[in-house]
Design brief:
The protein has a four-stranded antiparallel sheet with strand order 1-2-3-4, with no helix packed on it. About 10% of the residues are buried. The protein has two domains: about 30-85; about 90-165, Roll (PH-domain like), CATH 2.30.29. It has about 170 residues and is α+β, with helices and mostly antiparallel strands. The protein is about 40% helix and about 20% strand. It is built from four helices and seven strands; from the N terminus they run E-H-H-E-E-E-E-H-E-E-H.
Length: about 170
């Protein structure tokens, strides 16, 4: 038997970019704003503490630099995060799940069902307040989730989990 490894015509490959993607719920942006705000309030407390206890930072020039840096950092997180949120979308196909994210650094994850080990639906306190949930999909290749689709309606997340679990059942 002779070894063969024929080349595949790339134009005949299925195009993931042409799949109609479903955006995540717009209410999830409020969840992001709340978590970013809490994190940046913590950063502000650390910055104020550093200025308070480090004498060199108490000079007007250093205070101005610290405040300007904090404002620039906070604004960039909110601007880039909001732009990135607008690109978050997913699609479920017959044999895989696709998840797109990112604005500056764009990612397109495709996870075939035959690689999925399990998936988990979760919802934190802020997500529950806005009636949202997340689904994390795990494969055998990793002990952390391969993708986590956040900002779904809870019933939609449960339906997606049920569908994925049906797809990964062993064939008899």
């Amino acid at each position: 038997m002779q070894f063969q490894n024929l080349q595949v015509d790339w134009q005949q490959l299925p195009q993931a970019a042409s799949v109609e993607m479903k955006p995540i719920e717009k209410a999830y942006l409020k969840v992001l704003y709340i978590s970013w705000s809490l994190a940046h309030l913590l950063y502000l407390a650390v910055l104020i503490t550093c200025i308070w206890f480090i004498e060199k930072l108490q000079e007007p020039m250093w205070i101005s630099i610290c405040i300007a840096g904090y404002i620039l950092f906070t604004a960039s997180v909110f601007i880039i995060g909001t732009a990135s949120f607008k690109r978050k979308a997913y699609a479920v196909r017959e044999k895989d799940v696709i998840y797109r994210t990112g604005w500056i650094f764009q990612k397109l994850h495709i996870i075939p069902f035959n690689r999925v080990q399990h998936c988990v639906v979760q919802s934190g306190p802020v997500e529950r307040k806005f009636k949202l949930a997340s689904i994390s999909i795990y494969t055998a290749a990793s002990n952390i989730h391969d993708i986590s689709i956040k900002g779904l309606q809870p019933d939609e997340a449960e339906s997606l989990k049920s569908f994925i679990m049906q797809q990964i059942q062993p064939l008899n």
